[in-house]
């Protein structure tokens, strides 16, 4: 008889432990499997916040590690208590009709679990306040590059006031050498609704809000392309308001700057296309340096062909895509604010040929 | 009733004609019927908003999917969020409060029964008005469309320039109307608790559920009013040439954010506090012990109520506040974690040394504790402003608040359903279906919302209808979508359980759980007048006193 109850007891234990294990696995396995599935490789294709490449992102990561460690510890402690209580104090056979001791509370215990969390909060706060100050109140060195980023519904405008450059969607900045830092300071404005500038590996996000100038900075530690996108919902095509930051070596950056500072190339071979451009509404929305086109509603096209993508990263910058884009923007980016211009095939081809010369 | 009458031979039993029954429900001022109406209406919207969620998840199943257009997608997440917060969570919690509070304090009804009915119908009207936008949203501009500005409706997206037609007016007006309903109900709950307690029920003898609903009602008054005010200002902007939020004309988009989150953050506590209330009733009964640290639980709730009024801008860490403001909202937000933690400890303390019965309500309660713990910890992560500069507006936030709202609130609500359904209908819910419901939902929940943290860490913003391949988000999103469907199946099991048990469930009797609060002393379902004689109580657990005359709580009171 006694034997019997003991084995059933054991079996029951097994079952309860099994269930507890299931619960842990339920949360753990999806998380771990998820992390493996993402396979964060060495390149920057995955904009992982835990692979920072610039000081602000790096300070944030260090703070994150600290916060994760503390919250992880809290989790382990509280979760163990919970599981222990669930297993240890479950109803067992034969005790169903006896009520357990009725305990109403304990002042010492309550005090303990009030004071310890308060201490933890104080520590977390101090660590956080340090990083807030370090990132937000960092002084701007004289060698900093200044850029104004203006959010538009579904594309980015970048102006380099010191260098006289205007471009769109693909930001070029120099790598910052710790010995002679050349950080980039961005002034953030919006032409319409709210947007948010987010390149996870370079810095946390900051919103672009109309009538409310903001700023942020980053000092990339290595060259390469860094990806991100608009993070604040800004309307229909918020999803395709992608961002590319090209971090260039000082030499490449200098070359890029010189190329961008030139006026648009005037190639007589594509005069027909240029005429189409200048006699349709294109020029009301787009600017081409050194021509009659000076619209600011759409991206500056002076050096369109120096960009790898069009429509804020929605498509690669190829001849076919350009043609499709001008013929029917909705095919690439439904809801974008560039209208379909209803050109005939001949004009369209001429126009694309012209755009292709805007190196 | 009818079956008793059936037993008498040669008697033709006349049941109430359907029309009369319906008329009875439509014109009722009985708090129990209104409670059930609230719950039924919320369940209807739960299914609708759930379908919207599935549409969202199908679209995001893999990169560059084209299941729906961006326009439709944006309407879906706006309607999903708005519906779930205002027309599922709020009414269902008001429904339980309506049903339970008078019963638990030994009252015969709410303080203002007609105001109660009026508030319900206002809220219900709000919900239907919101959905009417699918037909009337664009007005003269063309076919109907639903609001697509997100559940925060940030300015200036709501300005006439960016939101032509009337879709965002439907958002504004429907929430304004149901907001008045919420205010009415909150006043009613406050008045009922303060004025209608039965003899002997001093404030410090009220069941915790009642205490917590008192705090919740107070917070509704404070939270809803700024939203209503902001909505009226928005209407002035849109139709009377005002410029409060119109940035093009010198207004402030940030002003709207402050108004919205001064409402929005207390609002999330309005939703979670009644769930704390369910936990504080259910965990003791299934642990067979009184709640651990009753006075501390009350104090912690009141403390959460106050502190949560000063944390709203943790939703605005990315809008460019200065470092002092960011530090202030970091510390206040982290501070909320302390009373919240105390609550978790007290629930575990209640289980400690008890005799835990794993009935379905308790399973959901343990699920609640587990998930709410994690949600609180991800909340602390986002309270660290710099960490939040990365996490904000990403899928990590979406995972956090679904951990609270689904893993916490919905789990607590399921626990409440399994626990009080017998009181409301006189029938037990099936334990077998209940366990299926629990395990399926638990698995689905974790597949969806545990995994959802990761794309956020990998830079995936929220509210995007499509995303680029090659960023490591594809597989994750597929898992998330699969989890969503498992949850949908679990919900079907739940609805089936509600329906089948109503007809075939075991008879509940007055007190199926051997519980201790007053609602279990009357019949199931209770008569219209609740109690034949008004009860008199001498402690926090009147039924314990009755069942254990040798060792009553009242001895220590
Ligand atoms: C210790 C407790 C908690 C802390 C520290 C906390 C912290 C936070 C923070 C800092 C955010 C802002 C993240 C961002 O947008 O960047 C947030 C978002 C949110 N939290 Fe919590 N939270 C806690 C508990 C809760 C509870 C109990 C609820 C609901 C019942 C809740 C619901 C939400 C919701 C709905 C959002 C996002 C709203 C949105 O962006 O659409 N949180 N939380
Ligand atoms: Cu956007
Ligand atoms: Cu909040």
Could you explain the architecture of this structure?
The complex is a heterodimer of chains A (about 350) and B (about 550). Chain A is an alpha+beta fold. Chain A has three domains: about 10-35 and about 55-95 and about 105-135, Orthogonal Bundle (Helix Hairpins); about 145-260, Cupredoxins -  blue copper proteins (Immunoglobulin-like); about 270-355, Immunoglobulin-like, CATH 2.60.40. Chain A is about 40% helix and about 15% strand. In chain A, the strands form four sheets. Chain A has a five-stranded mixed β-sheet with strand order 3-2-1-5-8. In chain A, strands 4-10-9 form a three-stranded mixed β-sheet. In chain A, α2 runs antiparallel to α3 (about 105-135) and α5 packs across α9 (about 345-355). With about 550 residues, chain B is mainly alpha-helical. In chain B, about 65% of the residues lie in helices and about 0% in strands. Chain B has helices at about 1-5, 20-25, 30-60, 70-105, 115-135, 165-195, 210-240, 255-285, 295-305, 325-350, 360-385, 385-390, 395-425, 430-450, 455, 475-505, 540-545. The two termini of chain B are about 40 Å apart. Classes of the chains: A alpha+beta (about 350), B mainly alpha (about 550). Chains A and B meet through α1, α2, α3 and β9 of A and α4, α8, α9, α10 and α11 of B. Bound molecules: protoporphyrin IX containing FE and copper (II) ion (2 copies). One copper (II) ion (CU) binds near residues 195, 232 and 238 of chain A.
In a nutshell, what does this entry contain?
The complex is a heterodimer of chains A (359) and B (557). By secondary structure, chain A is of the alpha+beta class.
Q: Are any ligands bound, and if so which?
A: protoporphyrin IX containing FE, copper (II) ion
**What is the strand content of chain B?**
under 5%
Ends of chain A: how far apart? 91 Å
Overall tally of structural domains of chain A: 3
CATH architecture descriptor of the largest domain in chain A: Sandwich
Q: SSE order of chain B in H/E notation? A: HHHHHHHHHHHHHHHHH
Q: What is the ordering of alpha helices and beta strands of chain A? A: HHHEEEEEEEEEEHHHEEHHH
CATH-assigned homologous superfamily of the largest domain in chain A: Cupredoxins -  blue copper proteins
Per the principal axes of the C-alpha atoms, what is the gross shape of chain B? globular
Q: Report the span from N to C terminus of chain B.
A: 40 Å
Instruction: Please summarize the sheet with the most strands of chain B.
Output: none
The helix-and-strand class of chain A reads: alpha+beta
Q: Tally the helices of chain B: what do you get?
A: 17
Structural classification of chain B: mainly alpha
């Amino acid at each position: 008889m006694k034997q019997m109850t003991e084995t059933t007891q054991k079996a029951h234990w097994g079952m309860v432990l099994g269930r507890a294990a299931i619960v842990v696995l339920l949360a753990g396995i999806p998380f771990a499997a998820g992390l493996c599935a993402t396979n964060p490789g060495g390149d920057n294709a995955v904009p992982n916040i835990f692979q920072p490449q610039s000081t602000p992102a790096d300070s944030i990561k260090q703070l994150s590690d600290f916060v994760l460690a503390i919250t992880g510890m809290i989790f382990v402690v509280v979760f163990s208590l919970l599981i222990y209580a669930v297993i240890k104090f479950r109803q067992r056979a034969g005790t169903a009709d006896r009520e357990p001791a009725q305990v109403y509370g304990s002042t010492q215990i309550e005090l303990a679990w009030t004071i310890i969390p308060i201490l933890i909060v104080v520590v977390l706060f101090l660590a956080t306040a340090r990083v807030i100050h370090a990132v937000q109140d960092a002084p701007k060195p004289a060698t900093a590059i200044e850029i104004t980023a203006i959010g538009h519904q579904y594309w980015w405008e970048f102006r380099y006031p010191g260098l006289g450059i205007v471009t769109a969607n693909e930001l070029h900045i120099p790598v910052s050498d710790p010995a002679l830092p050349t950080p980039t300071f961005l002034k953030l404005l919006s032409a319409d609704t709210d947007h948010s500038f987010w390149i996870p590996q370079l810095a946390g996000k900051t919103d672009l809000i109309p009538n409310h100038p903001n700023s942020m900075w980053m000092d990339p530690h290595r060259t390469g392309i860094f990806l991100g996108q608009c993070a604040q919902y800004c309307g229909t095509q918020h999803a395709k308001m992608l961002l590319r930051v090209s971090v260039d070596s000082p030499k490449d950056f200098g070359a890029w700057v010189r190329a961008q500072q030139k006026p648009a190339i005037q190639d007589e071979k594509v005069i027909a296309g240029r005429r189409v451009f200048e006699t349709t509404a294109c020029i009301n929305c787009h600017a081409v340096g050194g021509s009659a086109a000076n619209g600011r509603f759409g991206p500056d096209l002076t050096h369109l062909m120096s960009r790898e993508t069009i429509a804020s990263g929605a498509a690669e910058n190829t001849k076919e895509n350009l043609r499709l884009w001008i013929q029917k923007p909705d095919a690439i980016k439904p809801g974008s604010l560039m209208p379909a211009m209803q050109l005939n095939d001949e004009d369209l081809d001429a126009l694309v040929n012209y755009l292709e010369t805007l190196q | 009733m009818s079956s008793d009458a059936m037993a008498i031979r040669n008697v033709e039993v006349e049941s109430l004609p359907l029309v009369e029954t319906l008329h009875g429900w439509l014109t009722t001022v009985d708090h129990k019927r209104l409670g059930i109406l609230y719950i039924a209406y919320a369940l209807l919207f739960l299914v609708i908003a759930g379908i919207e969620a599935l549409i969202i998840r199908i679209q995001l199943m893999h990169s560059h999917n084209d299941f729906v257009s961006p326009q439709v997608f944006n309407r879906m997440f706006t309607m999903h969020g708005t519906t779930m917060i205002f027309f599922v969570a709020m009414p269902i919690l008001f429904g339980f409060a309506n049903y339970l509070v008078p019963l638990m304090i030994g009252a015969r009804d709410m303080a203002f029964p007609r105001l109660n009915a009026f508030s319900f119908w206002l809220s219900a009207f709000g919900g239907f008005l919101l959905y009417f936008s699918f037909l009337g949203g664009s007005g003269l501009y063309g076919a109907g469309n639903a609001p697509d500005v997100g559940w925060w409706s940030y300015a200036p997206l709501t300005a006439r320039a960016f939101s032509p037609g009337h879709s965002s007016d439907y958002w504004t007006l429907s929430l304004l109307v149901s907001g008045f309903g919420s205010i009415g109900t909150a006043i009613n709950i406050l008045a009922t608790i303060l004025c209608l307690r039965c003899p002997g029920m001093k404030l410090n003898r009220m069941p915790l559920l009642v205490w917590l609903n008192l705090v919740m009602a107070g917070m509704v008054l404070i939270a809803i009013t700024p939203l209503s005010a902001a909505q009226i200002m928005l209407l002035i902007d849109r139709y009377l040439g005002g410029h409060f939020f119109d940035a093009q004309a010198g207004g402030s988009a940030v002003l709207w954010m402050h108004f919205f989150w001064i409402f929005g953050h207390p609002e999330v506590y309005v939703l979670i506090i009644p769930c704390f209330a369910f936990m504080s009733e259910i965990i003791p009964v299934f642990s067979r012990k009184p709640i651990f640290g009753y006075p501390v639980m009350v104090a912690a709730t009141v403390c959460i109520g106050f502190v949560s009024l000063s944390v709203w801008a943790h939703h605005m860490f990315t809008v460019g506040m200065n470092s002092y403001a960011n530090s202030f909202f970091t510390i206040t937000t982290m501070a909320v974690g302390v009373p919240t933690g105390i609550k978790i400890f007290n629930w575990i303390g209640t289980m400690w040394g008890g005799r835990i019965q794993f009935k379905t309500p308790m399973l959901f309660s343990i699920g609640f504790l587990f998930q709410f713990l994690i949600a609180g910890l991800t909340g602390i992560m986002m309270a660290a402003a710099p960490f939040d500069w990365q996490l904000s507006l990403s899928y990590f936030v979406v995972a956090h608040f679904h951990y609270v709202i689904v893993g916490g609130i919905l789990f607590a609500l399921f626990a409440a359903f399994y626990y009080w359904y017998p009181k409301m209908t006189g029938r037990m819910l099936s334990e077998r279906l209940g366990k299926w419901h629990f395990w399926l939902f638990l698995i689905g929940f974790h597949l969806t919302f545990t995994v959802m943290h990761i794309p956020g860490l990998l830079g995936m913003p929220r509210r995007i209808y499509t995303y680029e391949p090659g960023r490591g988000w594809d597989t994750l999103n597929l898992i998330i979508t699969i989890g969503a469907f498992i949850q949908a199946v679990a919900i079907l099991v739940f609805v089936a359980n509600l329906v089948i048990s109503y007809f075939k469930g075991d008879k509940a009797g007055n007190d199926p759980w051997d519980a201790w609060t007053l609602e279990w002393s009357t019949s199931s379902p209770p008569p219209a007048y609740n109690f034949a004689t008004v009860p008199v109580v001498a402690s926090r657990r009147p039924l314990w006193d009755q069942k254990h005359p040798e060792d009553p709580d009242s001895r220590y009171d």
